[in-house]
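User: Please go through the entry that follows and flag anything odd:
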Amino acid sequence: MKKTSILGILALATLVAGRVSAQQTFPLYTGTVPDSRPSAVQETSVTLANGGVRISNVVQPNLTAFLPPAGTANGTAVIICPGGGYTRLSIDSEGYDVAKRLNEMGVTAFVLKYRLPNDQSQPDKSIAPLLDAQQALRLVRQQAAKYSLNPERIGLMGFSAGGHLAAWAGTQFAQPAGDKPGPESVRPAFLVLMYPVISFNDSLKHTGSRDNLLGKTPTPAQVRQYSNELQVTAQTPPTFLVHAQDDRTVPVNNSIVFYQACLRHGVPAEMHLYPKGGHGFGLNNKTTKDLWTDRLRNWFDANGWLTK
């Protein structure tokens, strides 16, 4: 594995002849990043032997925009939260690659490089990821006209621990995190949860995600607050879930309990469970010819989110 500069991976924000470029990266915050403090923490990027990219120690969160081909955008946007156990971000296979597939549907995509819990750089590591997800929703809504988006059609997608973050943002938006949340709504229009970490209870938890976010000795109240299946209400956005039955990293029951909570509260939900596929399969579950992105396209279409 080799380390590379993050600037070598992310495109800088650009404007070309007065138009938004096909891909651009911009900071999540102007000025001071909330829930941050000076530290020696420095962002690192590792390129794996297979070409995959893993980012850790995020200090300056940002969004990378992926725009559909000219004339094909339908006004729907998805903010993507890559997974990595709240210790790193699988920014390519659960970020950039997925964004490009969404572009093929006419959906504008934004890959969120969110901060990972860190006691050195954050006064309260248990809220930093949520602050970033909510700010991403605000920022995309603020720039909806620039990207020709419908501000009521901006959703969140998350993989693994990123799925926990997306579900967290999708169930606890009524009281936004932080001291000065701002006027824009932080309720996603919909959720797409890919083999998500949902629950922090002892029987379903992904130990690394819970430990990284809350420490090794969370209180019962914290476990309940961060168990997203217990936070579903009738206002939770429509949800699409995908998981594999043989997932040994994040038990499939994480998706099932969230789906059941949606049923109890009358939240429209669609779930696709594969018998095999394990964890972290990204775009393609190699054990089946079925493409979950085809199922997602159908779901988007059925809800009117592919209509211009």
User: Anything to note?
Assistant: The chain has a mean pLDDT of 92. The helical segments are 92-104, 128-142, 161-171, 207-214, 220-225, 253-264, 292-302. The chain has one domain: 2-302. The radius of gyration is 18 Å.
